[in-house]
Write a structure and sequence with these properties.
With about 575 residues, the protein is α/β, with parallel strands linked by helices. The strands form 8 sheets. Strands 5-4-13-12-14-15-16-17-20 form a 9-stranded mixed beta sheet, with helices on both faces. A hairpin with a 2-residue loop joins strand 25 and strand 26.
């Protein structure tokens, strides 16, 4: 598969696409776009970082606000690029290990300005396992790393532990802005790799997706067609995740917007901060995975809601994991009193291999869904049905983006199917062409001119519906049972976060339900705990015709997750099978 039909034109800063719509589209490279905004309106705000951290030795947290204009962002990015050009061979891989603040954006743009291949990672932190960092560094073999003064000691230690053979570690915040004058724009081509987006690893070891300059420009353009016009947006999603990189960095900068950032930890500790930023900065749009909705419903108080004005929020993009009708409805019910429109939710579907987005709900429609016959769905048939105990409520992910094609396919035969559940295949100018130095995996996922997503789904009334991962489906007596459906049933009868996994037995798979619970539930008397487990078993048996082999309760947050917060069911299966569940 190629990176679309982008080709160089007379200007070295632009490329043209013939597959982004009925007319030819000319797009700039992202770095050139930022540089142009810096020339045209240097004092316009590019990004604001709302930082909240505890100073060592003090009990209270310090909140700071840092804003960079387009002129300042461009100058700092050029200074970083000049350093990279001086010390690194052309198109070298450079790891980004900065905190979630303005230095990360400067570092990423610096790599693009220098013509290097960025490897977005994260600054080592005490609460985060270094396993992913080690595996990515070993796979990508960067020649340099970008970090900050605050993180440099931890970065050097983590890199040493990987056996990293590189040596250059640059502190972004200590590079003088005056060095920008030494930067020279490198020759850039549409098919040139801009960065390696490492997958979250929900079903296996992370792999580096090769995202080209053309992929990046096309993805940013596709986002703009759905969210513009807009002046300001807010995000807390990690920069090193594809959703954070495209939604919070590439797309807003390509549109000349003002992007407001707060860190993932700030959101997790107090989700009110996210919504307060949306309210204070009159954000036109924002983005979150599905779990962020439930987190706000649980943790934002009535007193805090009274201080919010969400009436200006036109688009609440929800992606990164399956979107649940119950989560969306609960969020709207709670925050409608703060002015949130019920048409604001924008369910989306995408993956790193497609430079994030494949389908997106058009603005102003809200979350559109339907009910489907559960028994028919487990047999692969799509049959809408009136709401009832034997139906599954599903939320559509909207229509495909400009230039994107989707085909629902029998994964075994490769034939297109209609009116049935199949594997989602996609292609378009945003679709990447493979993984970094993994030819076998590339051939398996990208063969035949289509990107095989590994997701089950179907098309209904023109909208794409996603029902689960191929690797996570639980097959019992020849029928496919989707974990998300079972989990929704469990959560309807118990105040937990449920994960359904299938474990192999002699002749078929057995269903195991893992439940994350808050401390009060973990301390239930034995009789009450047994009654709760029995309720779960009866609900699953009644709605799905399945026997639960075992119910296991663990503390909330204990199960392994990806970088975007999705449960790693494969890792859960391994921990259950090896008796290593926490």
């Amino acid at each position: 598969m190629t990176t679309g039909t982008a080709r160089p034109v007379t200007s070295p800063s632009t490329m043209t696409f013939t597959d982004l719509g009925p007319e030819t589209v000319r797009l700039e490279y992202l770095g050139d776009t930022v540089a142009r905004f810096a020339r045209e309106r240097p004092d316009a705000p590019a990004l604001t970082v709302l930082d909240d951290r505890r100073i060592p030795g003090e009990t209270r947290r310090h909140e700071t606000v840092t804003t960079l204009t387009y002129g300042e962002l461009d100058q700092r990015a050029r200074a970083v690029a000049a350093e990279l050009q001086e010390h690194c061979p052309a198109r070298s891989r450079v790891a980004i290990l900065c905190p979630h603040d303005e230095t990360y954006v400067v570092a990423f743009l610096g790599c693009l300005y220098a013509g290097m291949v960025a490897v977005p990672l994260f600054a080592p932190e005490l609460f985060r396992s270094h396993t992913r960092l080690w595996s990515v560094v070993e796979d990508s073999t960067p020649v340099a790393a970008l970090t900050t003064t605050r993180s440099v000691r931890a970065v050097r230690k983590a890199l040493t532990e990987t056996g990293w053979g590189g040596g250059l570690v640059l502190q972004v915040d200590r590079i003088p802005a005056e060095g920008a004058d030494r930067w020279r724009r490198p020759a850039t081509e549409p098919g040139q790799v801009a960065y390696l987006q490492y997958t979250s690893g929900s079903t296996g070891r992370p792999a580096g997706v090769r995202v080209t300059q053309a992929n990046l420009a096309a993805a940013a353009y596709q986002m703009r067609t759905r969210f513009m016009p807009a002046k300001a947006a807010v995000s807390w999603v990690p920069f090193f995740h594809d959703m954070g990189l495209i939604c919070a960095i590439a797309s807003p900068l390509s549109a000349g917007m003002h992007m407001v950032h707060l860190s993932p930890m700030s959101f997790l500790h107090r989700p009110y901060r996210w919504l307060k930023a949306v309210s204070d900065y009159r954000a036109d749009w924002t983005v979150t995975p599905n779990f962020g909705l439930a987190h706000c419903v649980r943790r934002v108080s009535a007193e805090e809601i009274a201080t919010l004005d969400l009436s200006g929020l036109n688009a609440l993009a929800i992606g990164g994991e399956p979107v649940h009708a119950r989560s969306v409805d609960a969020f709207l019910d709670v925050f409608e009193r703060a002015g949130l429109s019920r048409t604001a939710p924008v369910p989306c579907y995408g993956l790193a291999e497609a430079t994030l987005s494949v389908a997106m709900t058009p603005n102003g429609l809200g979350a559109v869904g339907d009910h489907f016959d559960r028994a028919a769905l487990t047999g692969g048939e799509v049959r809408p049905a009136p709401e009832g105990p034997d139906t599954v409520p599903l939320v559509g992910s909207g229509t495909v983006l400009p230039g994107v094609s989707v085909q629902i396919t029998d994964p075994d035969s490769g034939d297109e199917v209609h009116g049935r559940v199949g594997e989602i295949w996609t292609r378009g100018p945003n679709a990447t062409d493979g993984y970094w130095e993994q030819p076998e995996r590339t051939a398996r996922v990208y063969g035949g001119g289509w990107l095989r997503t590994g997701d089950w789904g179907f098309v209904h009334h023109g909208a794409l519906y996603v029902v689960g991962r191929l690797d996570d489906v639980i097959i019992v007596r020849g029928r496919n049972h989707y974990p998300e459906d079972i989990e929704a049933t469990v959560e309807s009868v118990a105040p937990v976060s449920a994960t359904a996994i299938g474990v192999e037995s002699d002749q078929t798979q057995r269903l195991v339900v893992l439940m994350e619970a808050d401390p009060p539930m973990l301390g239930l008397p034995e009789a009450d705990a047994a009654a709760l487990c029995e309720r779960v078993r009866q609900a699953v048996s009644r709605h799905h015709g399945l026997a639960v082999h075992e119910v296991v309760t663990v503390r909330r947050g204990a199960l392994p997750r990806t970088t975007s917060g999705k449960i790693q069911r494969g890792a859960c299966r391994h921990q259950y099978s090896t008796a290593t569940l926490p």
